[in-house]
Amino acid sequence: MKKVHKFTCIGCPSSCEIELTEDDGKILEAAGAGCKIGKDYAKKEFTAPERILTSTVRVENGVLPVLPVKSEKPIPKKLIRDSVSELAKVTVKAPIKQGAVVYSNILNTSVNVIASRSLEAKS
Amino acid sequence: MNVDTLIVGGGPAGLAAALSAHRNGVKDVLLIERGPELGGILPQCIHDGFGTVVFKERLTGPEYAERFIQKIRKAGINVKLETMVIAIDHNKRVIAVNPTDGLLDIQAKTLILAMGCRERTRQQILIPGDRPAGVFTAGVAQRYINMEGIMPGKRIVILGSGDVGLIMARRFTLEGAEVEGVYEIMPTPGGLTRNLVQCLQDFEIPLHLSHTIVNIQGRERVEGVTVAQVDSDLKPIKGTERFVPCDTVVVSVGLIPENELSEMVPLTIDPVIGGPVVDETMETSEAGIFAAGNVVHVHDLVDDVSAEGEVAGKAAARKIAGELKEKENPTKAEAGENVTYVVPQEIRKKNFDQNLKLSFRVKQVQRNNLIKVAADGKPIYSRKERVVRPPEMLSVKLPFSALEHAQVVKVAVEKDNEESA
Q1: How many Å apart are CA B101 and CA A72, to the nearest integer?
Q2: A56 vs B145: CB contact, 8 Å cut-off?
Q3: pLDDT tens digits, B34-52
Q4: Residue ranges per domain, chain B?
Q5: Are B26 and B312 in contact (CB under 8 A)?
Q6: Are B235 and B213 in contact (CB under 8 A)?
Q7: Which numeric CATH code is attached to B1-119+254-324?
Q8: ipTM of this predicted structure
Q9: What is the pLDDT of residue B351?
Q10: Which of A15, A52, A55 is nearest residue B192 as measured by Cβ atoms?
Q11: Exposed, middle or buried: residue A95 (CB in 10 Å: 0-12, 13-18, 19+)?
């Protein structure tokens, strides 16, 4: 049976409203997105919702005490909370380069968590 | 010291302006920033969603900033950090102070103001009650958690559904605090829909529309707040009061362009948005002084802020090269039906670019719209827009030729009757 699901894209602040039409789980159409990000988002949101994980980890000897980090790719939405708890155990040492892996393969998603910024060491 | 282009503020607008001025041939560019590092607010915005226009990627705030900072370094642009402007005048003379140079007396040929905006505080919205510790603006809470590694509290009530507040609702939750709810005095949310989805819905945080805080209680520290429903005049309804125990109140009640320096010049300020009146080159009421980004009007997208900085930087280069035409009898851009404001407010009759971008916001949420632009009453542009919301900035691109002889250009968002019939 044909069904329509509404999603609001979180790809950028444009917040496109997308109507996804499916027939017994088979996606027929995703309409209303301003760009490809929205189209892909609606399909993902219907099948297996994902989010980019962003948080911080502790830093030793840095000009700041915490370092912002992100998952290199989106991870399953339901793993976000547990991933943040996992990252709470991590301490890295400054200096750090943006893009450096701070936690590899988080919760067996085969996705790495990387530094969102470079951080200098305390002089 | 003498410089060709001086940029005040090292956030996204200032970074883009400095790069653009340099790329367009200005030899002596100086960027000054009050804080200890470049990037403005971006380093504390650790969530993603930045850069979808500029880089065609979803970046975090720190990543977006770092890309620009690296370009600044590569271009060899002169930067002075921890440098605060204390005086500025219409001759483009700027007095600034910092710990290494002491007092700096700078004479600039062109000046680009990029001071950004500030958060509205508890004091500005007059919440009654005690004055305990534990009341923060959303941006301050964000800086504490994301840059200083400090948790401001354990049980949080958020007042206002602005974007930073919504983003902090999620951040507090992920860091182990309990967010009791978000209270919004207006009947519609203040933040972007995407943030309602990924920050509140994803974490089942309740949003109470048409509600406000009527009292903050606590001696040393916040012990709780009284919330109440409001009527259509935004007045609390008797009998709807409810006490909510909490140790922290986070206020996210809007941003205001930061224009102390603009007023010192003094520049003409747009009373609706609180930023300097600009033309299509981002030049203010004072020749050779440009402004870009949130200092002019508060944006949703950092990408748009960068784009404005880019325009201002290029215009400053043209000004120095003597290519910028005088602003004689400019066309005025005005807000029509369901439009709050239009930027730029003025358009020169003749200039160097082929297209003109007008940015604007609507007053109220409306479905099935026609965006219309008229030049001296004559329609020159129209486009359908399904839903318009005040938190989401809109824009139109027009050819300069359509405006050349117009006195007034008016942007209106009208109900599309064909569509709803």
Answers
A1: 42
A2: yes
A3: 999 999 999 999 999 899 8
A4: 1-119+254-324, 121-253, 328-421
A5: no
A6: no
A7: 3.50.50.60
A8: 0.90
A9: 65
A10: A15
A11: middle
- Encode B257-268: b = buried (16+ Cβ within 10 Å), e = exposed: bbbebbeebebe
> Does the pLDDT value for residue B123 go beyond 90?
no
B48 vs A contacts (CB less than 8 Å)? 52, 54, 70
pTM of structure:
0.93
Q: Which residue, B68, B77, B60, is CA-closest to B24?
A: B77
Residue B52 touches chain A, beta carbons under 8 Å:
yes
Interface of B with A in 146-185 (CB under 8 A): 146-149, 174-175
- Is the predicted pLDDT of residue B345 greater than 60, yes or no? yes
User: In chain A, which residues touch B (CB < 8 A)?
Assistant: 8-15, 17, 32, 37, 51-52, 54-56, 58, 64-66, 68, 70, 77, 80-81, 84, 98, 116-118
Two tokens at B282? Answer: 């981002």
Chain-chain contact of B63 with A116 (C-beta, under 8 angstroms): yes
CA atoms of B296 and B276, how far apart (whole Å): 6
Burial label, A83 (beta-carbon count in 10 A; 0-12, 13-18, 19+): buried
Query: pLDDT tens for residues B241-264?
Result: 999 999 999 999 989 999 999 999
- State residue B352's pLDDT score: 59
Interface test with A, best of B143, B194, B196 (most A CBs within 10 A): B194
Q: From B16, B8, B11, select the one nearest B54 (Cα to Cα).
A: B16
| Cα dihedral B149→B152→B156→B159 (10° resolution) | -100
What tokens were used for B188?
Answer: 């519609």
- How far apart are the CA of B87 and the nearest CA of chain A, in angstroms? 30
CB-defined contacts A:B, below 8 A? 92
Q: If pLDDT is split at 50, 70 and 90, which confidence band does B420 have?
A: very low
Confidence of residue B353 (pLDDT cuts 50, 70, 90): low
Closest among B389, B80, B62 to A14, alpha carbons compared: B389
**For residue B49, which residues of chain A lie inside 8 Å, CB to CB?**
10-13
Closest CA to B192 of B298, B94, B82: B298
- Third-level CATH fold of B328-421: Immunoglobulin-like (2.60.40)
Domain B121-253 - what CATH class? Answer: alpha beta
Helix runs in A21-88, H state only = 36-47, 80-87
Residue B421: predicted pLDDT: 40
Contact A12 B387 (CB under 8 A): no
Closest CA to B338 of B364, B299, B359, B358: B364
* 8 Å CB contact between B396 and B411: yes
**What is the pLDDT at residue A13?**
66
Whole-angstrom Cα distance, residue B390 to residue B373? 19
Tell me the C-alpha distance between B371 and B368, whole Å.
Answer: 10
CATH match for A54-115 among 3.40.50.300, 3.40.50.970, 3.10.530.10, 2.60.120.10 = 3.10.530.10
